[in-house]
């Protein structure tokens, strides 16, 4: 069964540094999402992407965040200048319409 | 705004016990409802879904019925196994939107 893949599985970064989280969605899917889960808290929506542009974003998704689909297969989340509170598990998801299929996540640790 | 409330965990059960994990929601209109499961070290997997009132979603022995009158979508399984140990997330997707709103998750621990 096709699946969403995310790399790396764990990323450790110094505060203030830029980080790029990578995702390869399922190939025929058209909608792409990023969610995050701070340890012990609920999964929170960050952004959705369709037809090469952001379709929805949450309050969390401020100017420090950006998304890109640089080629036909990858979908990336960039955090420009990381803060301690960005430490979380970041999940990528994709869908043809519904439901959404999730990757295994990237654990981001900010030091 | 829309929200999902799940019962606090962990829920600790012996193998073959009956499972209920409560989920209630607040949303305008007619959302779709989902249960996702997260096994240790893995991502979120869709377990089951229901898109309209009185629909019953089912998969792998788990069931949940969309109850609009009580705004609930409780997850049930008649006989749990050790391999069911995981965190279970209730989620809704508002009508007309694509994003998911999740509950906090309920950890289930099943002992032999």
Task: List strands and helices in order, with pairings.
The complex is a heterodimer of chains A (111) and B (112).
Chain A: E1 5-7, E2 10-13, E3 19-24, E4 31-37, E5 43-50, E6 53-57, E7 65-68, E8 75-79, E9 88-95, E10 101-102, E11 106-110
Parallel strand pairs in A: 2-11
Antiparallel strand pairs in A: 1-3, 3-8, 4-5, 4-9, 5-6, 7-8, 9-10, 9-11
Chain B: E1 3-6, E2 11-14, E3 19-21, E4 23-26, E5 32-38, E6 44-50, E7 56-59, E8 62-65, E9 75-77, E10 86-93, E11 101-102, E12 106-111
Parallel strand pairs in B: 2-12
Antiparallel strand pairs in B: 1-4, 3-9, 5-6, 5-10, 7-8, 8-9, 10-11, 10-12
Span from first to last CA of chain B?
Answer: 41 Å
Summarize model confidence as the mean pLDDT of chain A: 93
| Portion in beta strands of chain A | over 45%
Spell the H/E element sequence of chain A. Answer: EEEEEEEEEEE
Overall, the morphology of chain A is: globular
Number of strands of chain B: 12
- Mean pLDDT of chain B, to the nearest integer, reads 94
List keywords for this structure.
heterodimer, A: 111 residues, mainly beta, seven-stranded mixed β-sheet, four-stranded antiparallel β-sheet, globular, B: 112 residues, 0% helix
């Amino acid at each position: 069964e096709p699946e969403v893949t995310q790399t790396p599985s764990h990323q450790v970064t110094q505060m203030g540094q830029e980080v790029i989280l990578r995702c390869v969605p399922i190939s025929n899917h058209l909608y792409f999402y990023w969610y995050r889960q701070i340890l012990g808290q609920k999964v929170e929506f960050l952004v959705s992407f369709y037809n090469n542009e952001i379709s929805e974003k949450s309050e969390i998704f401020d100017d420090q965040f950006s998304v890109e689909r640089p080629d036909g297969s990858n979908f990336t989340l960039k955090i420009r200048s990381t803060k301690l509170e960005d430490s979380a598990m970041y999940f990528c998801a994709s869908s043809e319409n519904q439901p959404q299929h999730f990757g295994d996540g990237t654990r981001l640790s900010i030091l | 705004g829309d929200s999902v409330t799940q019962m606090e965990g962990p829920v600790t059960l012996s193998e073959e016990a009956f499972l209920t994990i409560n989920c209630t929601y607040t949303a305008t209109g007619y959302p779709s409802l989902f249960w996702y499961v997260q096994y240790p070290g893995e991502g979120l997997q869709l377990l089951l879904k229901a898109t309209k009132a009185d629909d019953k979603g089912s998969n792998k022995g788990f069931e949940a019925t969309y109850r609009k009158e009580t705004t609930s979508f409780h997850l049930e399984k008649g006989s749990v196994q050790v391999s069911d140990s995981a965190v279970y997330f209730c989620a809704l997707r508002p009508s007309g939107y694509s994003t998911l709103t999740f509950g906090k998750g309920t950890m289930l621990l099943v002992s032999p």
